Amino acid sequence: MSIREQITVDIATVEINDEYRVELAQLRKVQDYSPEQARALADELIERANAADEMIADHMHEQLQRMTASTPRTITGEVVL
User: Which of 39, 49, 64, 69 has the largest CB neighbor count within 10 A?
Assistant: First the structure.
């Protein structure tokens, strides 16, 4: 009798940190990948980079809305200095 089990180990992960930067964490400092793995990792990096760009744009839009909303204005809409 034999027992077989397939275990999946993440050798690299890609995430976006709190500063909207893309982080690549690898199991080892120097890692070699098959061409298929390298393409998958590159696709993951590109996907996360695009997501980070969208998050930055959303954040900037939200900041602009807050700044505009907090600016004192007259009844006619002119900015009060």
Answer: 49
**How far separated are the first and last CA of the chain, in Å rounded?**
83
So what's the pLDDT on residue 39?
Answer: 96
CA distances from 77 to 8, 69, 72 (A): 60, 11, 9
SS3 sequence of 29-78: CCCCCCHHHHHHHHHHHHHHHHHHHHHHHHHHHHHHHHHHHCCCECCCCC
Antiparallel, parallel or unpaired: β 12-16 and 22-26 = antiparallel
Dist. CA 29–CA 44, nearest whole Å: 19
